[in-house]
Amino acid sequence: xxxxxxxxxxxxxxxxxxxxxxxxxxxLCAGLISIRxxxxxxxxxxxxxxxIAACFDGLDGRIARLLRGTSRFGAExxxxxxxxxFGVAPSFVLYMWSLKNNGDYSFVPCAIFCVCMALRLxxxxxxxxxxxxxxxxxxxxxxxxxxxxxxxxxxxxxxxESKHLHLSFLDSFAHWEILTIAILIFTSFLLISTLPxxxxxxxxxxTHYVIPIFLGTCIYATILVADPWGTMALSGFLYLCLIxxxxxxxxxxxxxxxxxxxxxxxxxxxxxxxxxxxxxLNSSNFS
Length: 287
Description:
Elements: H1 15-39, H2 43-66, H3 72-99, H4 108-126, E1 139-141, H5 145-152, H6 154-165, H7 168-174, H8 177-192, E2 196-198, H9 210-226, H10 228-286
Antiparallel strand pairs: 1-2
């Protein structure tokens, strides 16, 4: 009689729990490839690598929640990868783009950008365990790291688009060191600011807007393939235009929540007053 072999159980971590961390590591590698591209003057390769890192950054957290593979280790690894891919890599690309031949002090804006990116990521990690009000769940505090990198890379997008269109004056403007310094400082402020920014994580779309959004996404993807650098530059500008709308939406929701809280307290006080008056009447009737 043949005995059935018992396969030994392998103790360890499920592969599903490793997938988000593997995506994070791929994003980290993309950031390193971006630095390599900037060193060799291949700025289109450098920018594409940062965009790929942004895609991996958007996927790893969502996949971790879907596969129930979230962990503190994954959160810390994600922050380290974000610092390199969206802090060090963009500042290095911009330094090689237009600042490397402008003296020792030209590195200062790049250092400020890296420090502000580190502070923004540290603040995000420190707030993971904090309880937010219900109306604040759909908002970031300050511009998120991938968006900050995209805004900072505007001169590179503009320069690559000018080469595509053969516009020498636009290429000179894109390589203007004052433009690069101003954008780095401006983006650094957005990173460490307390501005409420839409996160689009739990963003609900009205039913009658679903089909137009599908069509708009298709059109955007087509334009992105046809003219990637101009589309990315325009996308950064449109994202900046959304910040005032996001600020207004946040404070409107906050005011509505405070109004509801005040009315709830008034109703609670009224119910307590009614209970006290009822108990007084009952005691007087009893006497």
